[in-house]
Amino acid sequence: xxxxxxxxxxxEEESLRELVEWINRSLAPHKYTYEIIMxxxxxxxxxxxxxxxxxxxxxxxxxxGFRRNYGKSAALYCGFEAxxxxxxxxxxxxxxDSPEEIPEMIRMxxxxxxxxxxxxKKKRYDNVATKNLPSKLxxxxxxxxxxxxxxxxxxxxxAYRNEVVKNIEVYGEMHRFIPYLAKNAGFNKIGEKVVHxxxxxxxxxxxxxxxxxxxxxxxxSIWFLQKFGKKPMHLFGxxxxxxxxxxxxxxxxxxxxxxxxxxxxxxxxxxxxxPLFFLALVAVLLGAQLFLTGFLGELVxxxxxxxxxxxxxxxxx
Length: 317
Description:
The chain is α/β, with parallel strands linked by helices. Helices cover 48% and strands 12% of the residues.
């Protein structure tokens, strides 16, 4: 099969039929063999009934329905697991992503050799204050932290080689950082395509301003896990050892200075009266705690089920 289109949705009953018809019109001239995998993320409207009716009319539709709303990452995880196409495309169900962009994204993967192609909504039809400006700030931060030069990392319209989605695990709210997950799995050829952004036709956005705060925290989490997840001692142990040594040296220096002054009959200040001594004690205690944190982290990492999981590109037998 050439293509799997994974669509996560939540309460989008008005747009589903129009979306499926648009996809079929856009792909018909290219003679692709494809499937449409719709993941209903616990919708409370008639979305599932609409999907059921569409599946009778369009045999290429497959569907997964959650009992409750788990979030977009969970929907994409299940969609990726079910995808059978050589290329997997993700898009939103709100008609803001254009299926007409898909053939060119497929060409970029097949002919240009990209592992992942991310859409870039260069001209957006969202509210400037609540969507555009925060999105630019968020993407600038993401580029700095991840080192991936994408203008719109969170764009829902993306295309992947099948092996990419089979070798990454999307969980929590990490759907915003799939390119970073792919990069850390060894898929380094990541491209970008300017895509046409449509104004929302039905309903309203399911995401508020809180997604930018959560997104920043998730970015820090995924950076930490990818960098130190299997070697926590390198971070906590290193900082802890440094703090411990600095505190110990300061404390010893203060004590020795007091003893030397006392032995020579010179005036001296009691060690316990000096704020620097208490700062040194705090550094020693924090250093010891951080070192033990790193040690415990190593024990957890050592017993993790995926401690020896590696993505193998090729073998010769």
